[in-house]
Amino acid sequence: xxxxxxxxxxxxxxxxxxxxxxxxxxxxxxxxxxxxxxxxxxxxxxxxxxxxxxxxxxxxxxxxxxxxxxxxxxxxxxxxxxxxxxxxxxxxxxxxxxxxxxxxxxxxxxxxxxxxxxxxxxxxxxxxxxxxxxxxxxxxxxxxxxxxxxxxxxxxxxxxxxxxxxxxxxxxxxxxxxxxxxxxxxxxxxxxxxxxxxxxxxxxxxxxxxxxxxxxxxxxxxxxxxxxxxxxxxxxxxxxxxxxxxxxxxxxxxxxxxxxxxxxxxxxxxxxxxxxxxxx
Length: 280
Description:
This protein has helices spanning 49-65, 107-120, 156-168, 242-250, 261-264, 270-273; strands at residues 2-3, 23-30, 69-74, 89-91, 96-98, 124-127, 139-142, 145-150, 172-177, 189-193, 196-200, 213-217, 228-231, 234-238, 254-258, 274-279. It is of the alpha/beta class. The protein is globular, with a radius of gyration of 17 Å.
């Protein structure tokens, strides 16, 4: 089952006109009971399914409040991380590039997303094909740069293949090495505007973002950096990271903060939960 917001989804020739422009359409995956089987990050308890559903519903309502057409798709697999919709694809201006996910248990998610895109008449801009591996949450677009995380997920073939795709769509690829234990680039870094990146201190090297203004958050606040840009200098963040939110606001970033603790326990951030499909 698929539910939509109050407006009809209507895709023109452009999807993501600018990487941090006004978000107008997003796809999200509703969490399944499998989320309770996920291994939480160190020091956190396990996720609770009913609370995850409630928090996910609030996320969708907040997006709608900000004028986003929200397309919520039911999870059908058994992997607890299927709710990380941002892993399946990366949208460029003229189409969506499909990823090939690192966990074997999640590979079918991309096929299901491709079928969903066909129903929405979303063109496919390319694929990360076998034996290459790359997860969409390891890609961060800002300005005309495509940052690609180098960590436990993905492989060199996936990163180099995506780099070629990014160049073909006008982005300059830049690899960003992740610290040990960091699950994904967008778990610890987010674009607040075309020239500003929020970075989790100790999780990535801020020098990788040369040419961008960086807002480096304190140790222990790394996940606060996984913001979802709603527009230039307007982001959606997890409310639990008070120090990180304060640092962003002091840097001139407007922050909409909500409780996503059941997902924070698993290392999932707002930008990982959301597949940004259209921006103006």
